[in-house]
Amino acid sequence: MAHAYTPGLKVARATIVRKERRLPLPGQVLKKVGDKVKAEDVVARTELPGNVVPVNVAGLLSVPPEDVPIHMLKKVGDSVKKGEPIAQSKGFLGLFKTTVEAPTDGTIESISKVTGQVILREPPLPVEVKAYIDGEVVEVIENEGVVVETKASFIQGIFGIGEERIGYIHVLVDSPDDVLEADMITEEHKNKVLVGGSFVTSEAIKKAVSVGATAIVVGGIDDANLKDFLGYDIGVAITGNEGKGITLIITEGFGKLRMAHRTFELLKDLEGKKASVNGATQIRAGVIRPEVIVPDESLEIKEEEESLSEGLVPGSLIRIIREPYFGQIGKVVSLPPELREIETEAKVRVLEVELENGERVIVPRANVEIIEE
Length: 373
Hints:
With 373 residues, the protein is mainly β. The chain has helices spanning 57-61, 68-71, 202-211, 223-230, 261-269, and strands at residues 11-22, 28-29, 36-37, 42-48, 52-56, 79-80, 85-88, 99-101, 106-111, 117-121, 125-130, 135-141, 145-156, 159-161, 165-171, 179-180, 192-195, 199-200, 215-221, 247-254, 274-278, 291-295, 317-320, 329-334, 340-341, 347-348, 350-355, 360-364, 368-370. It has 3 domains: 11-15 and 150-295, Glucose Oxidase, domain 1; 52-121, CATH 2.40.50; 308-370, SH3 type barrels (Roll).
């Protein structure tokens, strides 16, 4: 029988998670191999050079560029505060002097006799990288960062927005079919990762932001609601830097889509536990999935009984990722070896799937992804 392998979303009750935490440019690594870290711990830090601010001193003083150095009150390397005089004209008989003030805090980086400009460098910007997950440092990347490893429950979503955040799992609905509404959210849900069912309204997202919730994890969302919340169409791009005050993780897709039972039941079992979440999504080359990670060193990691490289086989749990069954979960019943003609008149390999409602359908193998155990 021919095999196919379509990578999919991973939902694991117990697995090993490794995260590389790297600075954007060389700096100081604060942890060593073997150190236990909390998600909130800073593991590396550096400073980004401040912005360059040119000041046209020659023009402001109405002097030739070559005369600028003799009018300077500050020299290269001096620190200045915003509003502090940095240059001054001689005036007429000591009167009617013109003064140039620093437009920002910074350091005098250069004084040009050719252009008449003074270059002011703003203070450096501190950059810190946190561990993101509770765990242990298993590798140090010299001058750049560390790799943190932990035992954890791990859930991937199909789409998300928002940056890395830390919160505590709180399930707000009784069923994976339920809609997460605004009136379910209260002030008590600050710093919580709120779990809904099949759908979340834009009003609920806004309410979650207003009470200081960490994140929302839900089966589906309407693209119009997402646009209403963001203020623009997200399009097909990399997400994760929206800066909207909350991280949103969609586990199934767009529309009202019941959260997969396995995912919902796992989240219920994780009620009250500390979670690391990230909504960053990239669906082009180098796929990035939004994620929920709940570290727990007491978890027992079982050896995988079957290699994922075997791909799709009868019994594989899959999600259909294109219409007309988009978002539905099922199990592979069979993988016919012969090519079948589909509606577009193309001949492709297909598989037979039994959906959660018991219905059996035939879909192209390219239209499904494995839900990894």
